[in-house]
Amino acid sequence: MTELNSKLQTALESRSELIANLNQKKTDAYRLFHGTNEGHPGLTIDRYGSQLFIQSFHAPLSPDEYAVIEQAYSNHFDIQEIVYNDRSAPYSRRKDPSETEQSSTCLENGHTYLVKGKHQGQDPLLFLDFRVAREWIEQNSQDCKVLNLFAYTCGIGVAAAAGSAKEVINLDFAKRNLEVGQINHNLNPSQTSVRMIQDDFFVVVRQMSALGIKQHRSRKKTPYKHYEQEQFERVVLDPPRWAKSNFGTVDLIRDYASVLKPAILCTLPGGKILCTNNAAKVSLSEWLDSIQRCAKKIDRPVQDMQILEPEADFPSPDGQHPLKIAILSL
Furthest-apart CA pair in the chain: how many Å? Predict the structure, then answer.
């Protein structure tokens, strides 16, 4: 087990400057070990405040490996809880279905977020590689109306409100995601008007963008709620890799335009979209090219583009991060 311990220590040393900077920003949530690029594929270790969060994706940890990890970090951080999720089952599903009664909080840029290692979903309640996007939106949302699409637990919404946005709309299909999101907003009171919409992306955004609803002709029509046409100074588009509903399909590999087109049309001229693609199979250059084509096709060409990369706790030797983030100025 000395080899694993050596890898953990090397990873921790490589993050020393980053962790010091994050501490100054009142941030205690970050990735401690990114196994794919640090010598142990399939193993990730994150700190969420007083919680150490371990996940294995290729094979379960042995008791000895678990003990090495516990010892490696207990000397450096005040760890009150260790949560281990083995996700080596097919489709990266967690094997144990239980929830922890215990919940806690972590800090990011001085903002408080709910932490719960085991819950009804599979993923952590706050994605740490998206920290750079939350920081950008906080710095660029003053007096703006912000539309947060695929909002999950509303981390972007919290950051936008902290940045003095005029209004934030968080849209997500899952009720439990928005329930956590409401807790996160409650933990961070602000003067910003915050609205939660639990509904299908295509239903809401295609109506806001005046594209209209499309349903499969051969199927029975599904009733839907009506929304007024609306545009925003800031739009955040952070879709899952794949999802399907009666109103459309999210497919980041084959058809990114299906989500980007209505998002662009919901953006005011002179506004900005923060958009992502987390499909590892899609290269950055290929994705950016598809963005440019889509924008030109609907006569809303991209005037400027900025690329955000995850911070140093998500190392990528070849610079090809699975999570790709672009800021589009329209």
Answer: 62
Instruction: Please give the C-alpha separations between residue 180 and each of 122, 124, 177, 185, in angstroms, as whole numbers.
Output: 14, 12, 5, 9
CA torsion angle for 266, 268, 269, 272 (degrees, to 10)? Answer: -80
pLDDT over threshold 70, residue 1: no
| Phi, psi of 213, rounded to the nearest 5 degrees | -85, 140
Q: According to the model, what pLDDT value does residue 185 have?
A: 98
One-character DSSP codes across 132-187: HHHHHHHHT-TT-EEEEET-TT-HHHHHHHHTT-SEEEEEES-HHHHHHHHHHHHH
Cα 78 from Cα 25, distance rounded (Å) = 18
* Whether the Cβ atoms of residue 1 and residue 64 lie closer than 8 Å to each other: yes
Taking phi over 0 as left and psi of -120 to 50 as alpha, with beta for the rest, 71 belongs to alpha
The H-or-E segment that residue 248 falls in is strand 248-251
Which range (26-35, 235-244, 316-325) has the least confidence? Answer: 316-325
Closest CA to 114 of 30, 179, 38, 173: 179
Q: Which residues make beta-bridge pairs with 137?
A: none
- The pLDDT tens digits of the residues spanning 220-233 come to 889 999 999 999 99
Give the residue from 324, 263, 301 showing the smallest Cα distance to 129. 324
**Do residues 203 and 221 make contact, with C-beta atoms less than 8 angstroms apart?**
no
- Model confidence over 155-205: pLDDT tens digits? 999 999 999 999 999 999 999 999 999 999 999 999 999 999 999 999 999
Residue 41: Cβ within 10 Å count? 11
Residue 215 reports pLDDT greater than 90: no
Rounded to whole angstroms, the Cα distance separating 196 from 302 reads 29
